[in-house]
Structure formats: C-alpha cells, structure tokens
From TrEMBL:
SUPFAM superfamilies: P-loop containing nucleoside triphosphate hydrolases. One of its GO terms (molecular function) is ATP binding. Keywords: ATP-binding, Nucleotide-binding, Transport. PROSITE patterns: ABC_TRANSPORTER_1, ABC_TRANSPORTER_2. The keyword Transferase does not apply. Residues 324-347 are annotated as: Disordered. Coiled coil: none annotated. Gene3D superfamilies: P-loop containing nucleotide triphosphate hydrolases. The keyword Membrane does not apply. Residues 4-236 form the ABC transporter domain. PANTHER family: ABC TRANSPORTER ATP-BINDING PROTEIN (PTHR42711), DOXORUBICIN RESISTANCE ATP-BINDING PROTEIN DRRA (PTHR42711:SF19). It comes from the Bacteria. This is ABC transporter ATP-binding protein.
Length: 347
C-alpha cells in the first residue's frame, strides 16, 4: 500500500515566490524516502502540507489512502511530524513536555508514563528527562522532538531536516535511532534534508527537489548508475596538453569520449571523463601517456556520488545551490538558527 501520495501539489505564498510547483511523489509503506534539496527548495513547505499544517494552492495529498484535506483528525493519528526547530518550551523538563504532548495526542492516561519512560530510555534521554529543556544539547533536543512525535505510535513519520546544525557525532547518533525505528517498527519515513550524506545513509529512495520542482527521483544506486559510470580525472602539466591530445588521438581511445578540460592557475590541466569501467580506463590511459613521455601528475577514479546526481539534474552542485541560497538570504549559515520562524509544536 502507498503510505503517502503527493499528487501535483503546488504552493504559492501570498507574499513570495511559488514555493512548490506541481510536485508529485509516493512513499510505500515501510519505505524511507528522502526529499533532498538546498535551502529554499520547498522541503519544509512540502512537509507542512503533508502534515496538514498548511493548505496547498493546488493538488492533493493522501496518507494511507485518506485525503489529508478531508480527514485531518484521522491523519494526525496516523502521522508523526518532527518540524524544524526546537519544539520543547525551554523552561519545561523533557518529561513535562512529553506529558503535555501525550495529552494533546489523546494517549490514554494509564499509558502515558510508560510510553514516556520507554521513549526516553530508547533515545538515551532517561537521566535528562527531569532536566529543563534549555539545558539540552542540540542533539538531545532533536531526540526529544523525535520522542514527542512518536508518543502516539504513528505508522508514518515526517522528519523535517533531522540533523541540521548538529555536529557529526550527534548526527550519526540520530541516524542510528532512525534506522532502528524503521527496522524494528517498520515505520514509513519521509525525511527532508540538504545533506547528501544523510540522504545516502538513510534513504531507500530519493526525491531531489530544486526551486519547488522535482528534478529527479529514484533509488540512490540507480540514479548514480544512470550517470554512465565513474569519474576519471587526470592531471598533467599544462605544457604537455598537446602531447596528451596526440596520445589520445593515436587511435587507442576510440571508445572513450572527449574529456572536459580545465586549466588551473598552478600550471596544471585537468582532464575529466565519465566512463563505465573507470579503473580499467585509467590504467589504459596511464600506460599510453607514459608511452608518449607525458608526466602524469595524478589520475583519480571516483565512483559517482549523489552530488554528481544532483549536479547532472540541476546544473549545479548542492554546495553551490546552498551558497546561492545563503547569498539570497534564503538560508542561515550552517550552525546558526533559522531566523524569523517560530518553533512549531509537533502535530
Ligand atoms: N510563510 C512564507 N511566506 C512567504 N514565502 C515563504 C514562506 N515560507 C517559505 N517561503 C518561501 O518559499 C520557498 C520555499 O521555502 P521552504 O522553507 O519550504 O524551503 P526549504 O527547502 O524547506 O528550505 P529550508 O531548508 O531553509 O527550510 C522559499 O523561497 C521561501 O522563502
């Protein structure tokens, strides 16, 4: 069964650009789908629409077969939503906050304490449960947010940017909990992220969102394979480029397409190919260039990465897209809070 169906959803804010433009995606039950895109791509807008916190301008969303616009109460029972930004009031303890959320979700009074204890233990927050939320580290706060979204045991979870701004070890910690949740409970998960490694580490399937549109979607391995092979990068002294061209034209390399060539200010030139069997091609190239007395400064073979996939479908690297977003004021620099957006309560 399809757990989430987003069907041609668009959103235009009253003051602002079109945040989503006819976005469609599906998440199967038990699947982990990552919506990957730079800041401003429309990820939060999409997550909030699925979580019934925002109405789309066009299109429809179905959750476990229910139209979210028509059955909001039902949907909130099925769905756990972890929004961006800390949700717990700083002057509440973790336990007090979870008790409040459990009440809002209608968790039976007789089960509240046990569920809170179970979640705090699982998320390694048990000793901190009685401490004020303002004393929590970023990673602890994120785990408390996750606990709040899981109190009513939803089969579908939407996690908006699980680890933005966290250090690598806290990030890995959250990833492990997410993997465990999916493995042990079979939870369906739709997460948004602007981290390539996060999408690579967690997702069964990726949806690349760029400027409000789906650029491409598919399994990470299939998307990488579709690029046509490995990247092979050769570095030679720029003065020897004519000799390299001659060696390549000597007839040995009919099966190798023309490289992209980039001269660098340090007097070296890089030639780059995308080739099906990169390591074998690199060995052949090295041998031929040695034969032509070219001094090879380096030859590198890279398996295609998700960034190559992003670049192939959006025309720029994710890093470049992030930098553009920061320059246009759409994104805070890494590590800083997101200005102008109040904390939201888990639905
Ligand atoms: N309330 C709003 N009013 C007007 N424009 C908005 C509003 N919220 C978001 N936008 C705009 O919609 C676009 C998509 O924003 P959104 O927050 O969904 O992107 P995002 O991919 O989640 O980015 P981030 O990772 O920074 O949250 C951006 O251009 C943003 O400026």
């Amino acid at each position: 069964m399809l757990a989430v169906v987003v069907d041609q959803v668009s959103k235009a804010y009253r003051r602002g650009a079109r945040a989503l433009d006819s976005v469609s995606l599906e998440v199967e039950e038990g699947e982990v789908v990552a919506v990957l895109g730079p800041n401003g791509a429309g990820k939060t807008t999409l997550a909030r629409i699925i979580a019934t916190l925002l109405a789309p301008t066009g299109g429809r969303v179905f959750l476990m077969g229910r139209d979210v616009a028509r059955s909001q109460a039902d949907v909130r029972r099925i769905l756990g939503y972890v929004p961006q930004g800390a949700t717990a009031p700083p002057e509440s303890t973790g336990e007090e906050y979870l008790a409040m959320v459990a009440t809002l979700h209608g968790v039976p009074a007789s089960e509240r304490r046990a569920r809170i204890r179970e979640l705090l233990r699982w998320l390694e927050l048990a000793p901190a449960g009685s401490h004020l939320a303002r004393t929590y580290s970023g990673g602890m706060r994120r785990r408390l947010d996750l606990a709040a979204a899981l109190l009513h045991r939803p089969p579908v979870l939407i996690f908006d940017e699980p680890t933005t701004g966290l250090d690598p070890s806290s990030r890995r910690h959250i990833w492990n909990h997410i993997k465990e949740l999916v493995r042990q409970n079979g939870t369906t998960l739709l997460l948004t992220t602007h981290y390539l490694e996060e999408a690579d580490a967690l997702a069964d399937r990726l949806v690349i969102l760029d400027r409000g549109k789906v650029a491409v979607s598919g399994r990470p391995e299939a998307l990488k394979a579709a690029l046509g092979g490995d990247r092979v990068r050769l570095a030679v002294p720029s003065a020897q480029l004519p000799a390299v061209r001659e060696a390549l034209a000597a007839g040995w390399f009919d099966d190798i397409p023309a490289p992209t060539i980039r001269g660098l200010p340090d007097g070296t030139t890089q030639l780059e190919w995308t080739l099906p069997a990169g390591a074998r091609a690199a060995a052949r190239l090295t041998e031929a260039l040695h034969g032509a007395a070219v001094s090879v400064l380096g030859i590198f073979v890279y398996p295609p990465s998700l960034d190559d996939v992003f670049q192939a479908h959006t025309g720029r690297t994710l890093q470049e897209a992030q930098e553009q977003a920061i320059a246009s004021g759409m994104a805070p620099e890494e590590g800083r809070g997101k200005a102008g957006r109040p904390p939201q309560r888990a639905a």
